[in-house]
Amino acid sequence: MLQEADFIQESIRERAQVTFRNHLRHIAGGNIKAWVEQDDGILEFPYGPAGSQERKSGKSELYDYMKDFPKRFDVDFTELVFHPMADPELVIAEFKAVGRHRETGHPHKQTYISVVETRDGLITRYRDFWFNFSSPLVQPSIRH
User: Fold this and answer.
1) What contacts 24+ positions apart, CB below 8 Å, involve 13-18?
2) pTM of the model
3) Mean pLDDT within 22-40
4) What CATH number has the domain bearing residue 13?
């Protein structure tokens, strides 16, 4: 039987996972304004393409970074798996993006592992571990 503290922890974990699901839903639906309102922190790309900015912060910078995503990509996020952590506000998620690049019509397939810190239903830090090695336009960069 769950103790009250366990119930509270599970409620917090569920809220964090719902926050993450909403994050994906807003991106897939092209609603970047709703997406940025849910994010209250930092977006980091430890393995982003060489020459790209590793970190975005603040609603304005996040919006500017993502505003054209719906014009460029039509995607669905699939195969979402959460890996529960001791900290219920920490989300570790694996998932895939499947869709197409709108300008070229080329398929878009990408696998992600995301480490997401939340607080009170907002994303405070999002570390996006992805890299699309199939793209001839980018080269990986490992930052230490």
Assistant:
1) 13/84, 13/88, 13/89, 15/118, 15/121, 16/88, 16/89, 16/90, 16/91, 16/116, 16/118, 17/82, 17/91, 18/121
2) 0.85
3) 91
4) 3.10.450.50
